[in-house]
Design goal:
By secondary structure, this protein is mainly alpha-helical. 61% of the residues lie in helices and 0% in strands. It has two domains: 72 residues, Orthogonal Bundle (434 Repressor (Amino-terminal Domain)), CATH 1.10.260.40; 32 residues, no CATH class. Helix 2 crosses helix 3.
Length: 108
C-alpha cells in the first residue's frame, strides 16, 4: 500500500524519483524499491515522507483513505518543484496581500 501511495503523492507533486530521493536524503533506488513494493521504508523515512507531503503515516500505510485524518481539512497550494526560494517569499507576500484585500472587500 505504501508504494502505491508514495507513487501517487510523488507524481501529484510533479517530482521525479531523483528529486524525491534528494529531498529525503536517500538514493533513487530506494524510492524505486518502495514504489514497486519490493521493500518498505524504515519508520524514520515514512515520517519524513508524511511530513513532506503533509499526510499522515496512517494514510501512507493504508489505514485510512483520508490523507489528514487528524488535522482536519486544509487548503494546500502545490508549489512546483524547483520553484525559486526568492519567488516563494514573493508568493507568500502576494497571498497575504490578496487575503487582506478580500477581507476588506467583505467588510464593505
Amino acid at each position: 500500500m505504501i508504494g502505491e501511495r508514495l507513487l501517487d503523492l510523488r507524481k501529484d507533486a510533479g517530482l521525479t524519483q531523483d528529486e524525491l530521493a534528494a529531498i529525503l536524503k536517500i538514493n533513487k533506488h530506494s524510492i524505486s524499491s518502495y514504489e514497486r513494493g519490493k521493500s518498505e521504508p524504515p519508520d524514520a523515512i515514512k515520517i519524513e515522507i508524511a511530513r513532506y507531503f503533509k499526510v499522515s503515516v496512517d494514510y501512507l500505510l493504508g489505514l485510512t483513505d483520508n490523507p489528514n485524518p487528524y488535522g482536519g481539512q486544509r487548503n494546500v497550494l502545490q508549489i512546483p518543484a524547483g520553484f525559486p526560494a526568492k519567488a516563494q517569499e514573493s508568493l507568500t507576500d502576494y497571498m497575504e496581500f490578496l487575503k487582506s484585500r478580500y477581507e476588506k472587500a467583505d467588510r464593505t
